Amino acid sequence: MHRVRLTVALFALFICCEDDDSITGPSGPVSFDVSPVAYSAIALATPLGNLNPPGHTFPSDHMGFYLAGDGAHLVRAYAEGTIETVYSNSGFDDYRIEFKHTNTLFSYLDHVENPFSSIKAGTRVHPGDSIGWATSYLDIGVTDYDTTRYFVVPGRYHEKTLHAGDVYLYFTSEVRENLLAKNTRTAEPRGGKIDFDIDGALAGNWFLLGTPVTWEASSFLYAEAQLAFVYDMWDPSKIRIVCGGGWSAAPFCCLVDGNAPDPAAVTQGSGFIKYQTIHAGSSDVVAVQLLEPRKLKVEVFASKTSNSVSGFTENAKYYVH
After folding, report:
1. Is there a contact between 304 and 284 (Cβ–Cβ < 8 Å)?
2. How far apart are CA 89 and CA 92, in angstroms?
3. What is the DSSP string of 129-156?
4. Domain annotation for the chain: domains and CATH numbers
5. Alpha-carbon gap, residue 298 to 202, rounded angstroms
6. Is 0.85 topped by the overall pTM?
7. Across-strand partners of 138?
8. pLDDT for 213-241, tens place per residue?
9. What is the C-alpha to C-alpha distance for residues 149 and 105, in angstroms, rounded to an integer?
């Protein structure tokens, strides 16, 4: 869940497969009846919205399990479905396995190790079927075409992000409660949130001016162009400023000294705003001004304090939604 894949194989991970009429099921949701790994194997279950630049400069559209101990844990199918694809994560000894459940609901497991020989495209799986193994962590994501996330410019996002479902909600109540017991987030929604864009406000995801309007813009391929003013996945009352690159202090994922002003309340009328960031080994200033509802002026002052910054310099850059 924290690895950046630098190979051409990653492109394939985001390409939606064509529907195969021979395995097409009904539309709508299905029940996830089984935990992908034993409850005892889960040290921590995360919500959506992981932030870890440059790979996850924007809140991640999947959740994950940090696994207990040093051994391998059996990974199981959690719902009825058909395997769409099995991708080898080139450069790493694990796999991403994608499932089709209905015409509108898909899901995937990532970082599966040593999948069983039966696990291949076209295989029908049932809850509890053995899939493979996992050691350190396991990711799971849901693509639900009956759900749509809000982003100011949706063309910058892959459909897996635009239609990312809250994974916990698809599990039966008993399984969901057991998984949530491993999730230390107490705020609702317990499953997390990824879409913080507000048209006309600072909150949300921003792209360096000139970044193409394609789904790749929100992938790690354009990390140097990505900047986000969002909220902590564990405690969403805390502001997070996240930058994938392009500044000497980047990549960074910072809390804000004083935890204010709230990006959701920063608009054109707010004028020049300074955030004193807090992160290991350094304290920087992120200065911003919303020039237009969808145009932002930004400058990052590395190793500076707020009282030493009075305005932008010629190093300022422009970002848009």
Report:
1. yes
2. 6
3. -EEEEESSEEEEEEEETT-----SSGGG
4. 9-180 (2.70.70.10), 204-320 (no CATH)
5. 11
6. yes
7. 65
8. 999 999 999 999 999 999 999 999 999 99
9. 15
